[in-house]
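Section 4.2 – Deliverable D4.2 (structural model, holo form)

The reporting period included a commitment to supply a predicted holo structure for the target in complex with sodium ion. Inputs used:
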Amino acid sequence: MKALQDKIRQEGTVLSDRVLKVDSFLNHQVDPELMAAIGQEFAARYAEAGVGKVLTLESSGIAPAVMTALALKVPMIFARKQKSLTLNEDLIVKTVYSFTKEQKNEVAVSKKFLSPGEKVLIIDDFLAYGEAALGMAQIVEASGAVVAGIGIVIEKSFQNGADKLREAGYRVDSLARIASLADKQVTFLEE
Ligand code: G4P
Ligand code: NA
Ligand code: NA
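Output (structure tokens):
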């Protein structure tokens, strides 16, 4: 998606060979027009997929996910991260390990918002090692719903998340695919 690549080139900061900072439009301040365009792009790609819900993980997935849900005219759910969960039989909980942060997070969605057979589009801001997306997919499947696909705003293709998700059989749609962050430069896969 050209507008997204341009924005990354203009405003992204390469913090290291593995980390891209995009806090001026995605991870802190949010660009609503770009998010709306991102939502329309995901909605167009999944127009024929029968999506009934969009699922993301708080917090940075919420902006692109809600715009996607708006364009598809379906509800959006954000999975919640909770440090300690008291017994609550209405929650589906998965543990997600973050290689970037070297910590475990419990991620939870209330059962009442996912129905058996329903098709769910998972959206996230970044794809690194794929653990967050896999955790969300497991939550969808535990509810009896079906993963329609996984839509990613920025995929770091030099990490193994996209391969892992495709090997697990999921459709993955990434709007920007970064081949390398070496030498403080963003190099996209399609160039
Ligand atoms: P994974 O799910 O693909 O395995 O990724 P990982 O656990 O390594 O990512 C941990 C957090 O770091 C996630 O945000 C993810 O979106 C973010 N992240 C990963 N790589 C980058 C990067 O290069 N740049 C930026 N800006 N973020 C990155 P989170 O902890 O869920 O935080 P948030 O959603 O509240 O922002
Ligand atoms: Na993030
Ligand atoms: Na995220």
